[in-house]
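It would be a great kindness if you could assist me with a short task in structural biology. I am sending you one protein, given as its amino acid sequence and as whole-number tokens for its backbone shapes. I would ask you to consider whether the tokens describe a fold that such a sequence might reasonably adopt. The full record is reproduced below for your convenience.
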Amino acid sequence: MSNNPFGHEREELKALLQSYSNLKEGNSTGFIEEEGFEKIIDYFDNKEKFQDALEASDFSITQFPFSASLLLKKAAILISLRRFADSLQVLDQAYLFDNRNLSFFVIKTDALLAMGSQFEVIDLFESAVSVFEGEEKIELLFQLSEVYDDYEYFDIVFDCLVFILNEDPSNEEALYKICFWTDFTGRNEEGIRLHQKIIEDRPFSELAWFNLGSAYQGIKLYEKAIDAYQYAVAIDEEFDYAYRNMGDAYIKLRKYKEAIEMLEKVLALSRPESIIYEALGHCFDKIKNFSQARVNYKKAYHLNPEDTQLQYKIACTYMSESSWTHAIKFLQSAIKIHVMQPDYNLALGRCYVQLGKYEDAILFLGNVVRVRPKNVPGWIELLKCLYDAGLYEEGFEYAAIAFEQTVSKPIFLYYKSAFLFATGQSKQALVYLELALHSNTKFIKQFIELNPAILQNQQAADLIASIKKNKSSRTKRN
């Protein structure tokens, strides 16, 4: 027996191509069988030499004029050459010789879809599924689903898989595929009904239970999804994707301890993945176990070192523990790659504020408002930093810019007032404070937090009390 079967096939193909060349040139009285011509056409087709493939198919048909398979090869090549009408003519000829060939329906569907003949495609589909039964019908439906996928008729792909599962509810390939297409097309309610029906007859189908859970998850019925996944893992204790999806469902329900348990089972059953460690990090973060969150984020980063978001998340765990220097280390690493990323700059600015390094903080917070000029939190962080740094005149100017950029958000009137009070311009500060209070009183607390001593200014204290009282009275009357 040959140790290199592919070498034998290459030699056979080489000999076929030589024979074909000799026949074309009239230098041979040899003979190529129908199957040999199919291999020659496929060779040119795979090389995307469509004109050569068409020439070979035409030549082969002169040798085997009643061959439906060779006519179908030609029809497929004509589609590659975008000669759709010619392809349909050849298909009609092939149909006369063999009206039960699966490839006929697949290739004709391809041609009609390429021409945009949707109604004819539907008629052909109905005709095709009525002609075949059993394994042939299932094979046809799989092939048609691939054609519909190519032309982005995704709902019909889903329909094909439903047809298959109605024929064969235990078909694993269809069960695997329909899970994706249910989610992709958003046809979750239909997916639920389909899999409930399958489970009635096959209660130990772990794939059906999994797909049912996925469909429930698609419409945010997370408790029902978890119940379905629990059945799936009861049948197959090593069904790692069921544990994975359960972990996600528990996260959506904010049940982080349960999510951690599921995600750890995923790691025990499958190879380590960055996304699983990141999800674990998120869960530990939410239950304020920052050291464990950091451990998992670092494992995720080790597997995916190009993801700077993971460095940012590691830094955030340090910030939650007030470990500003450690946070800066990871943020600086991330920002080398994405210099103007707003979240990274904002976090760095906050860290430097905490360390009293206001010049550095202003630099990074300034980047935030440059990239997101309409973002209120970014402006607030910059203005607080300027206030803490004692840069009151600059702060007033930036508060004015912030007010303009954010379409007159009243919070920035309070900041204008605060900066004016800080520079001793009390009269003008009271004007802005009154404007701010009339606009919105909910920011009074933030205004006072900037400088609690502001309440020692009797005029400011009286103004705040007066307007709060008037607003309260109006609210009661209404």
About this structure: The first helix runs from residue 5 to 24. The two ends are 96 Å apart (CA to CA). The CA atoms of residues 281 and 297 lie 5 Å apart.
